[in-house]
Design goal:
The protein is an alpha+beta fold. It folds into 2 domains: 75 residues; 181 residues, no CATH class. It is built from 6 helices and 7 strands, in the order H-H-E-H-H-E-E-E-E-E-E-H-H. A 4-stranded antiparallel β-sheet has the order 1-2-3-4, sandwiched between helices. The chain has a 3-stranded antiparallel β-sheet with strand order 5-6-7. The longest helix has 39 residues. Keywords: Membrane, Transmembrane, Transmembrane helix.
Length: 257
């Protein structure tokens, strides 16, 4: 049985991430604007901030891995099964290759277009105050590094678990999707809620698009995941869409939970 205080511990650990970043930034401010004592305090605060941040990320990753392992067990429970898709290897590889290239494109846009534009704007805005520019650049670099690592991890997981599989299949269940017995798209649990499922064209192929509401910041963010419909099952797309939507959590239902 899980410790009843595990949720409180998880929240406190997650809060350590912004707190540790704050310690590091505060240390840099002390160095920039307090030439004498700032260095001494920073010698303590910077290592402390890095240590807390590292510990927090490791805890989050470990907790997420444990959650996914438990979820795989539930996703393999046939009583939760809504639909099972079996694919021809060629059609599946064609789909995931196009999907992967689309993800790569977003990754490149984030790193090589958005970031230079923001940096150029900062240079124009703070060109006369080099201290503020240095601090802002460090903050931007930190955010960019975290975002790029998260995106890269997502790409690596996508490629390693969806490519090169002899008998590709996807299980659509009431609490998520399990692809090739290892890749998970979760919903209707602590990770988020399925709001709707629609059949549409994606990368020029007939797919089911899952709209999932996840917690983020002050409100909610929406994640979209597309799953290929096997060619031999395309005529059943509307029926499958309807069956999945029976388990969608609308805004009204969500407010009652």
């Amino acid at each position: 049985m899980k410790n009843p205080f595990w949720k409180i511990k998880s929240i406190l650990i997650v809060l350590l991430i912004p707190f540790s970043v704050f310690l590091i930034l505060a240390s840099i401010l002390l160095i920039l604007f307090n030439e004498k004592d700032g260095y001494l305090v920073s010698l303590f605060l910077i290592p402390l901030g890095i240590t807390l941040c590292t510990y927090s990320f490791k805890y989050v990753i470990r907790t997420n891995k444990s959650f996914k392992n438990d979820l795989i067990v539930h996703l393999n429970d046939d009583s939760r099964l809504i639909e099972l898709f079996n694919y021809e290897k060629i059609e599946w590889l064609n789909f995931v290759e196009k999907y992967y290239q689309k993800k790569i494109k977003k990754y490149k846009i984030t790193l090589f277009i958005v970031i230079p534009i923001i940096l150029s704007f900062m240079i124009m805005l703070y060109r006369e105050d080099y201290k503020v520019f240095i601090l802002s650049s460090f903050l931007l670099l930190s955010i960019t590094t975290v975002v790029s690592l998260v995106l890269r991890k997502s790409l690596v997981e996508f490629k390693s678990k969806l490519f090169d599989f002899e008998n590709p299949q996807a299980k659509i269940t009431t609490i998520g999707i399990l692809i090739n017995k290892s890749y998970i798209v979760s919903y209707n649990n602590q990770d988020g809620w399925l709001t709707k499922c629609t059949s549409k064209l994606f990368v020029d192929m007939k797919c089911l698009e899952f709209e999932i509401r996840r917690s983020g910041g002050k409100g909610h963010v929406y994640q979209y995941f597309n799953l290929l419909i096997p060619k031999k099952r395309e005529q059943d797309a509307i029926m499958t869409e309807s069956r999945v939507n029976e388990y969608a959590v609308t805004k009204t239902k969500y407010n009652k939970i």
